[in-house]
Amino acid sequence: MNIEFHPEAAEEFEAAVDWYEERETGLGLDFAVEIHAAIQRAAAMPDAWTQLAGTVRRVLVNRFPYGVLYEPGSRSLLVLAVMHLRREPGYWMTRRSE
Question: What keywords is this UniProt entry annotated with (predicted)?
Fold first, then answer.
């Protein structure tokens, strides 16, 4: 399955990697690995995770207080947000493809 990132989701991901790396060397890489694993779980079973709004779903990230919000398609997965779970809910709604 092809994985695509909304531009703002890619920025969030990069900013979070940088933030964790500034806290401790190697922690940014650990975060990136866990995000990748969450995306792979979502791609393997796109309909298995929590449905939030319309076709948008969320898979939780191990070890970090983040969720990956995505829209599954027939051949691709669109990552809409790499969201800290304590951030304002719903900020990502304008990114939906519907």
Answer: Toxin-antitoxin system
